[in-house]
Specification:
With 120 residues, the chain is mostly beta strands. Helices cover 5% and strands 52% of the residues.
């Protein structure tokens, strides 16, 4: 059974930075693909960034150049470094993992989320 625990959320002013972490426990098979989703108030959950075990990553257009996703496979931990934050980055950020791309997109494992609030 995989458990994902996010940390690092909080309140920050626009233009500031925050670093999120996701600590995973369980089989590494279920951690082949990892990513960060976010859900803003009144909006659908959206994929922010994802990363595979090799380190190859991709980003939503809205965060390219401002956010950096990384992972430490030895420690089963994933990170999201967020810079130049904007009020529209506000939301609950969720960690997700999957054993493959179909598993990641269609089912996967979710963390409980951490709230990021960016004030203008």
């Amino acid at each position: 059974q995989v458990q994902l625990v996010e940390s690092g959320g909080g309140l920050v002013q626009a233009g500031g930075s925050l670093n999120l972490s996701c600590a995973a426990s369980g089989s590494s098979v279920s951690l082949k693909v990892m990513g960060w989703y976010r859900q803003a108030p009144g909006k659908q959950r959206e994929l922010v960034a994802d990363i595979i075990q090799s380190g190859e990553s991709s980003y939503a257009d809205s965060v390219k150049g401002r956010f950096t996703i990384s992972r430490d496979n030895a420690k089963n931990t994933m990170f999201l470094r967020m810079h130049f934050l904007r009020p529209e980055d506000t939301g609950v950020y969720y960690c997700k993992s999957g054993s493959s791309w179909p598993d990641f997109y269609e089912k996967g494992h979710w963390g409980q989320g951490t709230l990021v609030t960016v004030s203008s």
